[in-house]
Amino acid sequence: MTVAQPRLTLAEFETEVRLSGSKYLLVEGPADQRFYSGWIRTAPIPLDRRPLVMTADRIDVDGGLLISIGLTDGQRSRIIFLSQFAERRSLDILCVADRDCGEGVTTFSASTLAWTDFPAVESYGFEPETLDRLNELFLGNRLPSGSSLVSELSEPLLDLYAVRSHNPSMLAPKIAAAGVRSGGTIAFDLNRSIPPHLASVAPTYLRPAFADARAHAYGHDICELLLLLYSNPIRNQSGVGSVGMLENALRAAILLSGVFDSSILASRILAWLL
Hints:
Elements: H1 10-20, E1 24-27, H2 30-42, E2 52-55, H3 63-68, H4 75-89, E3 93-97, E4 113-115, H5 128-138, H6 146-166, E5 179-182, E6 185-188, H7 190-193, H8 196-199, H9 219-229, H10 231-236, H11 243-257, H12 264-273
Parallel strand pairs: 1-2, 1-3, 3-4
Antiparallel strand pairs: 5-6
Helix pairs in contact: 2-11, 5-6, 5-11, 6-9, 9-11
């Protein structure tokens, strides 16, 4: 049985960082921790410069402190707060927060804070080469080509992004319940995934224009849409039975494709480490 480690107080965390002499990369959750740790192992970083990758929930941050700077309780908010704490205390830390739909990106800044280039880590994989790698390695080439998937999913992902960006506190869309039969196949119906009061106004929302489709590909929505539209080849034929399993496979495909290596965030992390 895994025993949860007690959370460090801010003072204890500061002491640990100073005494260890190590660099610390703070990320939102365990999936992010596995992704960045995996990338660091293969990146051109000397062993003695590799950071300790830690999740935000290892440090005890009182919810009142978050509220005091205009944040709600959550891992992303903890990362933002900890970046400001680290900057004030001159700690050798880099905090990585998910961009999501851009909330707070212009409001909160610190030399110790980096944002993902796109809404989340999974967003880096919404491009043809990585989706082809996902298909080949984990799904037995049972899906259409990566370029076809980007074309097919881009519009529904943009619709979901627009709704999320106008309603940052909304509950997660119910994508799994938003399928409709269309000519023998399943299509996505936005109105079935969001509450009626949002469905009635969603057509009026401004849909942002991004040169790169990954910019409007909200992390969790990618794999939920794939599972909705291609449930049989993914779940039944490939044995990838949950969103979590598919997201793990997508993150692995991102690392294997090397697409993250050329990102602005990767360059920022390397510059800090080297």
